[in-house]
Amino acid sequence: IYDPCCGSGGMFVQSEKFVEAHGGKIGDIAIYGQESNPTTRRLAVMNLALRGIEADFGPEHADTFRRDLHPDLRADYVLANPPFNDSDWFRKDDDVRWQYGVPPRGNANFAWVQHFIHHLAPAAPGSSGGMAGFVLANGSMSSNQSGEGTIRQALIEADLVDCMVALPGQLFYSTQIPVCLWFLAKSKAADAKRGFRERRKQTLFIDARKMGTLIDRVHRELTEADNAKIVNTYHAWRGDVVAGGADPGPNGLNAAVYNDIPGFCKSATTKEISSHGYVLTPGRFVGAEEAEDDGEPFEKKMPRLVGELRAQFAESAKLEQAIKENLERLGYAG
User: Fold this and answer.
1) H helices within 51-183, ranges in order?
2) How far apart are CA 259 and CA 239, in angstroms?
3) Domain boundaries in the chain?
4) Is the pLDDT of residue 314 over 50?
5) Taking the alpha carbons of 36, 37, 38, 41 in that order, is the dihedral positive or negative?
6) Mapping DSSP to helix (H, G, I), strand (E, B) and coil, where does residue 279 land?
């Protein structure tokens, strides 16, 4: 597992918790990180040491774009929460990492994306290669400024984008910027070892913007049920054997487990994405949520609604007359 902007190591701690929760042991995974802030790096080292987790943070703190401390690493998983829309970053125009286009100097979003891809393990016989999951600002899904749209198109045409999740606002204490989750896969070919179905030229879109619960006036949290719905939808779409506890059906996909849900999720082809100008905003694909049918026939509902509207008009007229009378008593008539 690799995080090139690891901060105090939160992603690594959660990774170990995940492994243990699924029957693994601390030490089953190898951890690699890099952090540019020396104080934060020391916190990461201490954070993992206190939990008995071994990690390679390189010999010292360093800027990932200026000096990659793990240049030869090809990771099975990349997990990251890079700085959003960073305009103060170092760019070398002929950097080997810019396989899909040179990122703009004013925004490092697609520099981070291409750095993640550069460090993913390649696909091999029997393995679909590395996967990356990371948080970015919503603008990364649709921006066409300074060549960002061209880079995003190249990523899509290279069939790297596995899943996009639009998250609700107010999730972070440090920023009000709306964010999304990107999931990339080095290869979407069937992977028997991981239990993935064949999903080349397909991308899953999940619109989770309406999910979550306000815990105070300005902060929202995703509940366990919310998280489970998002995770299970992605796993079912990938055809994971564990999805729904069922074996995958034809082509590895159990249709009883995954279905497009209007307003929430949609499996789209690369051709469909191209028809939307290579924009990856889930709301463009999932459509509108289906309204629930209350079972009342239209021929009965319409007269009832008209009757309620007329009663409200009558009540409005009474209120208007009462207000006029009060104004007259106060000497403000006419």
Assistant:
1) 109-118, 148-157
2) 12
3) 74-286, 293-334
4) yes
5) negative
6) coil
Fold of 74-286: Rossmann fold (3.40.50)
* Number of residues in the chain: 334
CB atoms within 10 A of CB 282: 24
Sheet with 77-80: list strands edge to edge: 32-33, 2-3, 77-80, 131-137, 179-185, 161-166, 202-207, 265-269
Q: Which two tokens stand for residue 141?
A: 């899904």
Angle at 135 between CA 129 and CA 136, to 5 degrees: 115
- What's the pLDDT score for residue 30? 93
DSSP string, 4-37: TT-TTSHHHHHHHHHHHHTT--TTSS--EE--S-
Report yes or no: 256 and 244 within 8 Å, Cβ to Cβ: yes
Residues contacting 264, CB < 8 A, separation 6+: 206, 207, 208, 233, 286, 289
Question: pLDDT (tens digit, 9 = 90+) per residue, 185-195?
Answer: 999 999 888 88
Left, alpha or beta for 304 (phi > 0: left; psi -120 to 50: alpha)? alpha
Pairwise CA distance, residues 140 & 152, whole Å: 8
What percentage of the chain exceeds 70 in pLDDT?
93
In the chain, the largest separation of any two C-alpha atoms, in whole Å, equals 90
Helix or strand run (H / E) with residue 230: helix 224-238
pTM over 0.85: no
Strand partners, 79: 133
Percent of the chain at pLDDT exceeding 90: 70
Q: What is the pLDDT of residues 214-259, one digit of tens each?
A: 888 888 999 999 999 999 999 999 988 544 444 444 444 444 479 9
Distances 254 to 127, 197, 205, 312 between C-alpha atoms, Å: 21, 10, 18, 51
Q: Report the alpha-carbon distance of residue 110 to residue 118 in Å, rounded.
A: 12
